[in-house]
């Protein structure tokens, strides 16, 4: 879509916190109005609608929309965001294993600013499955580079959580 449309979507999202919980439908209507401007087969439409449902507390309604956006070819940065958000929503509706399957390949994807969000969301999915050590390892591994000291120690501790001792 064009930059003007994307700017209007971004502007709508900056107003999200202005809506009270009881006005969630009004916010979703703003997004729906913008989505109506898109071509019928655009992956951006279901993605933005999924985000709106998800952000207003309806993971169950968001899941099929995220899936539709990805099936329509949403890729790149927004595709990665969709995978993070879909995995989180899947976890919220009791389908954490699907979230793990969706996010695990992203650990090997080209690096970007979403890497830590991938690891954090994957850690939550793993924890929901009782795999807390794996989740903690991911979180410590993501945190280590941001520490002012102890980066190597924390990275080693993260690996040790999931690597059997010799």
Could you characterize what this model shows?
The protein has a domain at 3-104: Tetratricopeptide repeat domain (Serine Threonine Protein Phosphatase 5, Tetratricopeptide repeat), CATH 1.25.40. The chain is 67% helix and 0% strand. It is built from 9 helices and no strands. It has helices spanning 3-14, 24-35, 44-55, 59-71, 76-92, 96-103, 115-128, 132-143, 151-162. Helix 5 packs antiparallel against helix 6 and helix 6 (96-103) runs antiparallel to helix 7 (115-128). The radius of gyration is 18 Å and the shape is elongated. It starts with a helix and ends with a helix.
Rg, alpha carbons:
18 Å
Structural class: mainly alpha
- Extended strand count: 0
Oligomer description: single chain
Determine the CATH superfamily of the domain at 3-104: Tetratricopeptide repeat domain
* Proportion of helical residues: 55-70%
CATH topology of the domain at 3-104: Serine Threonine Protein Phosphatase 5, Tetratricopeptide repeat
Uncertain runs? none
Could you describe the largest sheet, including whether it forms a barrel? none
Coarse shape: elongated
User: Which architecture of the domain at 3-104 would the CATH scheme give at its second level?
Assistant: Alpha Horseshoe
- Give average pLDDT, whole number: 94
Reading off the top of the CATH hierarchy, the class of the domain at 3-104 is best stated as Mainly Alpha
Beginning-to-end CA distance, first to last residue: 54 Å
The amount of beta strand, in percent, is under 5%
The ordered H/E elements are: HHHHHHHHH
Total of DSSP H or I helical runs spanning 4+ residues: 9
